[in-house]
Amino acid sequence: MRFSFLSLLRNAFSAHRDWPEQWRSPEPKPAYDVVIVGGGGHGLAAAYFLAAEFGIRNVAVVERGWIGGGNSGRNTTIVRSNYLLEDSEALYDHSLKIWENLSQTLNYNVMFSPRGILMLAHGHHDVQSFTRHLHANRLAGIDSEWLSPEEARAFCPGLNISKDIRYPIGGATLQRRGGVARHDAVVWGFARAASALGVDILQNCEVTGIRRGPDGAVTGLDTTRGAIATRKIGVSAAGHTSVVLEMAGLGRLPLESTPLQALVSEPLKPLISCVVMSNTIHAYISQSDKGDLVIGAGTDQYVSYSQTGGLQITAHTLDAICELFPHLRRVRMMRNWGGIVDNTVDRSPILGPTPVPGLFVNCGWGTGGFKATPGAGHLLAATIARGEAHPIAAPFGLDRFARGRLIDEAAAAAVAH
Ligand code: FAD
Ligand code: PYC
C-alpha cells in the first residue's frame, strides 16, 4: 500500500482505521541467504538495501525485543556530516545524501528536517579546532560556515552570548544541510519497505549462539525462536555487539559499552529552530515537531549495560543548557532515559568482514550512529552482497586496530563523550 494524497483521503473517511499492517510478522523459516542480527535502524536499512539494491530478498532481521527498541529509538536524532578526516567525511556525507531523499525512496515520511547544526566554540582552543574542521570540510565539498557570536545569536535567537558566563561563546560552525529526523519513523519506514520486498522481520527473537562449520565459516544461528541456517550473518547490535560476536568465538572486540542519556521537556511553542551543540560543556538541544525540547548529555564514564545512567550527568547538562539559554530555567522536564552505546578508542565505527568467513559487522557507532543509519545500512548491504568491504567502508575495518591505522574523530564526535 503506497502512501499518497489519495490513499490518505480515502482512509480519512474510515477515521484511518483500515490501514493494513505496515510489515509482516512471519514465523522464522529454517534457512535464509542472509540474517541480520539487530532490528535497529542500521540492521533494517541493511536488509532493505540487500533486497532493493542487491536483489537478495531471502533475508531475515532478528531482533531480541521490538524493532527500534535500542538506540535507534533512544537518540536525539542529530544528522550531520561535518567530521574531520577524509575517510569519515566520505562516510557521513554518503549517509547525509541518502537522508536528503529518504522519505521519497521509502514512500514514508521520516521527517528529515535540515534545519542547521550550530556547533558552539568556547574559548581559544575550541575556535582553533573548529576552524580546522571547517576548512577540512570545505576542502571535501561539505558545507560549513563560521559564525561570530552575534551571527550565531541571530541564527538561534535566545542564545546567551554574554562574556560573563562560565564558558563564553567565541563563535560557532554552522552546517546548514544538517538537522534532525523522526527516529521511530526511520525504523518503521525501513521495516515497511524491507518487508514489502520479502524480508522477514522476526521480533522477540534473541540470538543465543552462532554456528560454524569445520572450515570455520558460519552455518547458522541459534535463537529463542529456533535454529536458523545461513551462510551470511551481518551483526548490527550496537551496545551488544561484543556479546553477539563472542558467540562466534571472535574474542574481545575493541569496544566499550557505556550508557548515554537524553531527556525531553514539556511541549512548548516553537522556540528553538535549529540544533545547538556544545562539545565542551556536553550539551545539545533541539525542539521536536511536538514542541518538546530534546536535550542530550555526555556518556556516563563507566562500562555498563544499564539503560538509565546516573542523574548527576543530566544535572550537569541542564546546568549547561540553563547557561546557554537562561530563559529555559523554569521549563519542566518530562522524562529521561539512556541507551547503551558502543565506543571505539578512535570514536569511529567498525564496518566490514570479520576473520570468520561469512560473518560481517557494523558497530562502534557509539554516540553518533543515528546520522549514519541509511549510509551504514547501505554499506553493510553492499559489503555482505559482494563479500568484501565497500570502498567507503574499507578504511573502517576491524583490522585497523591491529595495523594502528586509527581514524581519530574524538573531536568531531565529542559532544557526547
Ligand atoms: P540499535 O538501534 O541499538 O539496534 C541494535 C539492536 O540489536 C537492538 O534493537 C537490540 O535489541 C538488538 N540486539 C542486541 N543483541 C541482540 C541479540 N542477541 N539478538 C537479537 N537482537 C539483538 N547518534 C546520532 O547520530 N545523533 C544523535 O543525536 C544521537 N544521539 C544519541 C542519544 C542517545 C541518548 C543515545 C543512546 C544514542 C545517540 N546516538 C546519536 C547514537 C545512535 O542512537 C546509535 O549510534 C544508532 O541508533 C545505532 O543504531 P543501531 O541500529 O546500530 O543500534
Ligand atoms: O553525533 O551529532 C552527534 C550526536 C549528537 C548527540 C549525540 N550524538
Automatic annotation (TrEMBL):
Keywords: Cytoplasm, FAD, Flavoprotein, FMN, Nucleotide-binding, Oxidoreductase
Catalytic activity: sarcosine + (6S)-5,6,7,8-tetrahydrofolate + O2 = (6R)-5,10-methylene-5,6,7,8-tetrahydrofolate + glycine + H2O2; sarcosine + O2 + H2O = formaldehyde + glycine + H2O2
Domain Rhodanese as annotated: residue spans: 34-78
GO MF assignments: nucleotide binding; sarcosine oxidase activity
GO CC, one annotated term: cytoplasm
Enzyme Commission code(s) on record: 1.5.3.24
Family matches, as InterPro entries: FAD-dep_OxRdtase, FAD/NAD-bd_sf, Rhodanese-like_dom, SoxB
Uppermost EC category: oxidoreductase
Subcellular localization, as worded in the UniProt entry: Cytoplasm
Cofactor: FAD; FMN
PANTHER family (alphabetical): FAD-DEPENDENT OXIDOREDUCTASE DOMAIN-CONTAINING PROTEIN 1, SARCOSINE DEHYDROGENASE-RELATED
Family: Belongs to the SoxB family.
Protein name: Sarcosine oxidase subunit beta
